[in-house]
Amino acid sequence: MPPLPVIPDVFRVVLEWNAHGGVSPVNVLHFFADGATSAQVAGVIADHITSDMFSVVGQDFTLDTIAITPLDGSTATTHHSLGVGVAGQATGQAMLNMAACLNFGTTQRGSRGRGRVFLGPITESVNTGENNWDGAQRTDLRNDWAAFITACGTDSPSVVLGVASYAHGDFHIITSLTPDTLLRSCKSRLNQLTR
Fold first, then answer.
1. 93 contacts: CB under 8 Å, gap ≥ 6
2. CA 12, 133, 193: angle at the middle one, nearest 5?
3. Rg for the chain (alpha carbons), in Å?
4. Do 186 and 120 form a contact (C-beta atoms < 8 A)?
């Protein structure tokens, strides 16, 4: 992996889910926090992250720790316990290579200003047929993430979720959240099963 870019006051946060069924999911998010430390960023995230944000993730997956790397070019990654019980809520048989996708939009045009998070592995109960998922569930998930973003951004210190462009070395604040109607295949997760 190439070296991480230097983007002042931006933190790379990895949600480290527990392993289950041969899969160890991770989600990578980026936050801007002016003058904050990794521990302060972890504290704000722990105060506001909820299981509702992961309602489509199989209930066998739990999130206990996050790894935070300041994109300052010198500070090492630190691991922080959330201290709260965050877990997937979906019941039924896990679909290990399928995920729901939440798209992040910013005011920056082009791929430089777009991001997404894949939430999964999901379970069969989430798939309403032909790789679709329930509209009400999409709305609830979007609202749960929006509440998290608002709460983190108005806390002290302010911890703002956004999109980091490694190619351009910049960061853009999220202005819109859009869940995909279709569920997505996570090829990299499927490859984990064959290793």
1. 123, 124
2. 60
3. 16
4. yes
Considering the entire predicted model, what is its pTM? Answer: 0.92
Alpha-carbon distance of 142 to 100, in angstroms, equals 11
b/e per residue, 60-97, with b = 16+ CB within 10 A?
Answer: bbbbbebbbbbbeeeeeeeebebeeebbbbbeeebbbb
For the residues 124-134, what does the mean pLDDT come to? 87
Task: Tell me the CA distances in angstroms from 188 to 29, 48, 96, 102, 185, one per residue in order.
Answer: 18, 29, 11, 18, 9
Question: Quick one: 110 exposed, middle or buried, by C-beta within 10 A (0-12, 13-18, 19+)?
Answer: exposed
The per-residue pLDDT for 186 is 66
Q: Which of 152, 144, 143 is nearest to 173 (CA)?
A: 152
Tokens of 94: 């896990």
- Residue 143: CB atoms within 10 A of its CB come to 13
Task: Say if residue 129's pLDDT is above 90.
Answer: no
Stretch 52-63: mean pLDDT: 94
92: which DSSP letter? S
DSSP 57: B
User: For 109, how many CA atoms within 13 A lie in the half-sphere containing its CB?
Assistant: 0
